[in-house]
Prior knowledge:
4-stranded mixed β-sheet, Glutaredoxin, alpha+beta
Amino acid sequence: MSEPVVEVVGVYNADGGVLGEIAYVLGHAMGSTDCSLCDVTHGGIRRRPAWDEMVGRLPVPVRLAHRNETTEGEKDLIEATGLPVLIGKRRDGSLTTLVPPLTIAAAEGSVDALEASIREALDDEGAV
């Protein structure tokens, strides 16, 4: 059996930093950039309180990162799955895709819908 998942890493389809944030806002406004994970975690420019409440209910911590803030291992997984993605980090350091891009998009900005997908994945993968 695989090691249990000890952390969820959500990776946005956007770069961090001031220039990355500006590029995303402009691209989103023009319709040329999209990040369905951003749509779930943020309303406008602020993080949604419902997201923070949901994270508090999960059995493992959640770390959010922009695509330019990921580890080498996370980058390898992202290359295979695409963005945005929710990755499970196992106790032994190995990584697994918990919630792929299409499932995040299917949540259509709903914290509740994404929570259901995260919980199902954590149940399937095992979580501490």
